[in-house]
Amino acid sequence: MNVNIFDTTLRDGTQGEGISLTVDDKLRIASALDDIGIHYIEGGWPYSNPKDIEFFKKVKKLKLNAKITAFGSTRHKDSKPEKDGNLLAIVNIKPDCACIFGKAWDLHVSFALNTTLEKNLDMIYSSVKFLKSKNLEVIFDAEHFFNGFESNPDYALEAIKSAVAGGADIITLCDTNGGMLPNQVKNVVEYVKNLISVPLGIHAHNDSGCAVANSIIAVQSGCTHIQGTLNGWGERCGNASLSSIIPNLKLKLGIDCIASEKLKLLTETSRYISEIANVVPSHKQPYIGYSAFAHKGGIHASAVAKKSSTYEHINPSLVGNQRRILISELSGRANILLKSKELNIDFEKDTDKTKKILQIIKEYEKKGYSYEGAEGSFELLVKKHIGKHKTFFDLGGFRVAVEKDKNGNLKSEATIKVFVKNKEELTAAEGDGPVNALDNALRKALDKFYPQLKNVRLSDFKVRIINPSDGTGAKVRVLIQSTDGKNEWNTVGVSENIIEASWQALVDSIEYKLLKE
């Protein structure tokens, strides 16, 4: 059994809150989706805006393997297909495929379209027939089909039969409101499958949290076409997430949908698309999330070290993800050993070093440090206590000043003295804030000694109050994410003074980079 995958990130996905894409963004995402073997890429609704028209013009130059699909609706109730602006917009941009939606719920026909049930059926039939006359593959999305089937099953079926009569190549049953449960989807798809010879598809929204399950049960019930978005983006609670559906079909059910070598690109592609859209990916996403194969409890890590299937439902490398061993006060020796192996640090389980490092971590966590999100600081901590750490500079002292002028403008300046290779270096720098100024001053002092630091910059800065009941005397935990343009690493600092906590994290960030070099 083969199932084709239809991604609508560039259309339905952009209807999600906080998602906005330029034409160039859409072209890059289309290329990424094509690289992993997506069969249909819905590029947008050409009748709705000029940006989508521009996309369809430019995407032809990419020569993708996927079928570039244009979205639209059935004709207007008062126009003929050959004169309908919406249908003509699809025809004019000459896509590989047209996907149009029509009403399958009698409620929508009466209240949204404000037309008769009979006229709606003709709108479906004539629209599909017109597009087929232009030598286009046509997918008909039966909007609100499941709700329509509950309300008036005979009419919902007449709606899709009208599309079949018009020549539709695929009929997609849509859970547009996202409220169906898997057993409802199963019963309806099986019923429709016995009446319709045209291939069936499923388009599920996630308002009841069942979009992925509904899509999978639909395939098991006879659908061979799945619509969704790779990261689950979409209106309201989103569309069915293809990053969960694809590996479930491929690895759990043995259903061919993309090639195995393409499946290994799934995690990288998902994160790449999130980066383009400037969206923070969810760490909890199944299969591809940063936390999907993360182990924190000591018992879990110990078991995984012996046999990965004890706490992992698949090998993470199959989807391009990787196991992560988290370090915290809940860690056991297995966590330390596994994490150390990741860092190419080798010591035996029963050595005093392992016990000592475990004890030190628990003591630091008690003070407020957290290493599960600061792997750079953890590596430095381990290397310091096994004699593999190197000191690259010593602090002579620093001073940070913040000034506010009469116009309300803030100015931050940091002065720092460091000793590098027996030389004293005194520098000053300004910044957007005190931490930025301190970071600029430190790197300015070290640049001439360590030119590889010129590419290093802070990409994220987080502050958390550890014991808020202590008011202004509370400890703060500072987490810093740094990047050199190729790699990213996280470091941590803790103090009652936010500048001191930031300094600790900054020093770890610099030392981590230099140790790696």
Describe the structure.
With 517 residues, this protein is an alpha/beta fold. The chain has helices at residues 23-35, 50-59, 85-93, 106-111, 117-133, 145-151, 153-166, 182-193, 211-220, 242-252, 260-263, 266-277, 298-306, 333-342, 352-367, 375-385, 434-446, 498-516; strands at residues 4-7, 40-44, 67-73, 97-103, 137-143, 170-175, 200-204, 225-228, 294-295, 324-325, 394-404, 410-420, 423-431, 457-465, 476-483, 488-495. The strands form four sheets. It has an eight-stranded parallel β-barrel, surrounded by seven helices. Strand 15 and strand 16 (488-495) form a beta hairpin.
Summarize the model shown.
With 517 residues, the chain is an alpha/beta fold.
Please state the structural category: alpha/beta
> Ranges with pLDDT <50 over ≥5 residues?
none
What is the approximate shape?
Answer: elongated
Q: What's the overall average pLDDT, rounded?
A: 90
Share of β-strand residues: 15-25%
Please work out how many helical segments DSSP would assign.
18
**How far apart are the first and last residues' alpha carbons, in Å?**
50 Å
- Largest β-sheet summary: 8 strands, parallel, barrel
In the CATH hierarchy, the third-tier topology of the largest domain is known as TIM Barrel
Return Rg in Å. 29 Å
CATH level 1 class label of the largest domain: Alpha Beta
Domain count: the total is 3
CATH superfamily of the largest domain: Aldolase class I
Q: Total strand count, please?
A: 16
Helix content: 25-40%
Write out the strand line-up for the largest beta sheet, numbering strands in chain order: 1-2-3-4-5-6-7-8
